[in-house]
Each structure stands twice: as C-alpha cells, then as structure tokens.
Amino acid sequence: MKLIMKTILLITLLAFIACEENEVLVTTENEIITENTDKIIVNNEHDEDKDHEHDEDKDHEHDEDKDHEHDEDKDHEHDEDKDHEHDEDKDHEHDGDKDLSEFLENYDVPGIQNLLDLSWPREVEAMNGEIIINEKPERILTISTGHDEMIFGFANLNNIVGVTSFSQSPGGNIYELTKDMPTITSEIETIVAQDPDIVFADPYANVSLMQSLEDLGIAVVQTQLNNTAEGRINDILFAAYVLDELESSKMLIDAINDQISYIELIKNVIGDTIDTNILSVTYYDAYWAAGSGSTEGSIIELAGYNNIASEFGVESNNMITKESLIEMSPDIIVIPQSVEWGGQDFYDTLMSDESFNSIPAISNEDVYMVNTSHFTTLSHFNILGSIDLLDLVSEIKIEGIEKPELKACYQCYK
After folding, report:
1. Residue 4: what are its φ and ψ, rounded to 5°?
2. Full-model pTM
3. Are 58 and 65 in contact (CB under 8 A)?
4. What are phi and psi of 367, to 5 degrees?
5. Is residue 132 packed enough to be buried (19+ CB in 10 Å), middle (13-18) or exposed (0-12)?
6. Across-strand partners of 220?
7. Helix, strand, or coil here: 131?
8. Number of neighbours of residue 372 by Cβ within 10 angstroms
C-alpha cells in the first residue's frame, strides 16, 4: 500500500514538473518570436528609411539636373536674345546708314564735292575760300543769329560753347536754350575766351575779325543764309557736313518739309492768292520796304501772295518814300517791327494818318504787327512766318489736320 502511494506521488510530481517546463518553453519561444518580429519591424523601418533616402536623393539629383538644364536653357536663351538684339542693332544701324545715304543722294550742296564722303579731313568751299576740317569739331560757336538758330536745330548742344546776344533775346526762337550760355559779341576776346574749334559767320561778318580768328588757328566758315526753301536746306546740309551731324540734320529737314507740305495744303484750300498784294514795311528813320530777295519777301511768296514791293522794283530791304507806299496800295500790310523798336508807334501812325486812307489795307484795317522772330531771322524759322501770314489773312482752319511742330532742337543734349 505504501508502495502504491509512493508511486502515485512520484507520478504526480513528474507531471507537475513537465507542465512547468512546457510553460517555460512556450514563454521562451514567444519571446524569441517577439524579438524576431521586432527585428523584422526594425529592419523593415530601416529599409524603408534607406529606400526613402535613396528616392529623395534620386529626386534631388533629378531636380538638380532639371534646374541645371533649365539654367543652361535660360543662359542659352539669354545668349540668343543678346545675339538677336546685337544683330537687330547692327541691322538697324545698317538700315539707318542706308536711309541716310539714300536721303543725301537727293541733294547737290554747293561747296561740297561729295556729300557721301564722310571721311576726315573734309574740304568745303565756303564764302571765305577753301576750308579744311581735320576732325569732328567739338567746340562750336557762331557770330550770326541765323547760324545759331540753324545749328541749334540739329547739333549736339553740349558742343556749342557760345551764342550771339540776339539769340538770347526773350521771345526769340531759341531763347530757352541759350539764355544761360556765354554771350558772343563782335569783340574777339569774347570768342577766343570760349576756345572754339570752329566759328560760323554770315555774309555780313567783319572781315578783319574773321582774319584775326584764322591767324589764331581757329577755323572760320563763312556761309550764305538763304531765304528760299531749297537754299535753307542746302545751308543746313553744308553746316551739318562740316560738323559731322548729317543724321540729325535729316530730322530737321524732314520737319521743314512737313511745314512746307502744310503750307501747300492750306494754299490749295484757299485757292489762288497771287492777286492779293502784301507789303512788309517798317519805320525807323524812314520807311523800309522788303523787296525782292528779302527775307520778308520770301515769306510772302512762300505763302502764295504777291510781294508788291518787289513788283515796284524794290530790292532787298530798302528805303521808300511815303508817296511810294501810297502808290503801291497794298491789300495787306505787315509790320515786322517789335514794340520795343517802335512797331506799335508806327502802326498807330499808319492807322491815324488820313493821307493813307486810300490804301485798301488801311481802309479795311488789314494791318498786322507780326512775330519778328519768324519774319526777320535768317533761318528756317521764316517758314513759320508764312504760316502766320496764312493764318492772319485766310483764317482757314482745316478740321482733322494738325499744324506740324517745328522744334528748336532735334538732337538737343544727347
């Protein structure tokens, strides 16, 4: 019996031990599985990080490659644009040169052998003889108001070192541009003080003054100042050739031609005006009438009217008698004389003197004081005098047609 009890106790003990070992085994296996699972998860996360970094690197490299390609494309496009702009500039310059050459071919300027020969030195035949200009003048002045106005129209004003006192008169055509510039007089000291390379003089310039300037090594160019449309353009081209400013002179000449075209348009609308007799007259110490070859006469003729003084044999600006004025019997009288120089007093005398009542201009009150800057200056601004005259006499306004502008300078300060 005791033996049986010991046997049962031993079996029970062995069974208990077996169960404990099994639990330990299961627990251990679970821990191992868990550890392995963690490793797998950790390894998986590590692989994902590596893949993500790799993808990011690839994307970054790809983006860099794209950016680089884009930058290269931009640089290439920029270079192409620069090349294109450069080619356009060259083409524009070439076209400009071609246009200028074609423009100059239309003119045969007295005193210039070949207007298209733009090499240095340049030779011209002026009123004071053959002049050689070795290089482009950089310091320019004139001793003539007409030359002042003409050269201001096309030259680089930085190169003009002095002007005449008449050009600085308030109300003058170039007053605003000249009012603060050095003033040139007939005294040689005022000229030499500006150290000019070249001096322009009109036909009335003092001969001894010009000779003294030449003796000092200063080039003097004496030219005509014509009062016809063709003559004015020739004057401009002559001076522009000497100063190497032909391209900008074209702008001024084009503007002058626009003015003339406008005048012709007005004349066509008005009709025949040649039978309208106009007299330009002033009074200083005597009556002075503007005859054939005068500036005022050319203004009257360009406007399409008859210059009655020329018809009576008056040449240039010359004295006439009171009786001659009455005999001319003009339809229109213009007085190119400023108030400061007695213009208003002369007007009042004409209108109040009963001996003039037989003159149609007096009886019809067709007497006008006109802008002296347009009527008396020997320059292209005389064309505006013709337009002034048409406005005064015809009083015609054409709808849709604007009066073209004539600027004081086309290059100004470049």
Report:
1. -65, -40
2. 0.76
3. no
4. -115, 130
5. exposed
6. 199
7. strand
8. 21
Residue indicated by tokens 């106005």: 149
Both tokens assigned to 398: 């054409």
What letters, b where the CB count within 10 A reaches 16 and e where it falls short, cover 333-366?
A: bbbbbbeeeebeebbeebeeeeebeebebbeeeb
* pLDDT tens readout for residues 301-356: 999 999 999 999 999 999 999 999 999 999 999 999 999 999 999 999 999 999 99
In a 13 Å sphere around the CA of 124, the CA atoms on its Cβ side amount to 28
With residue 92 as reference, give the H or E element that holds it. helix 2-104
Long-range CB pairs of 27-31, under 8 A, 24+ apart, other chains included? none
Which residue blocks in 105-140 are alpha helix, DSSP H?
none
Q: Which amino acid is at 6?
A: K
222: left (phi over 0), alpha (psi -120 to 50) or beta: beta
How far is 256 from 401, CA to CA, in rounded Å? 17
Helices 229-243 + 145-154 axis angle, to 10: 70
Q: Tokens at residue 127, please?
A: 């009123």
Distance CA 12, CA 310 (A): 162
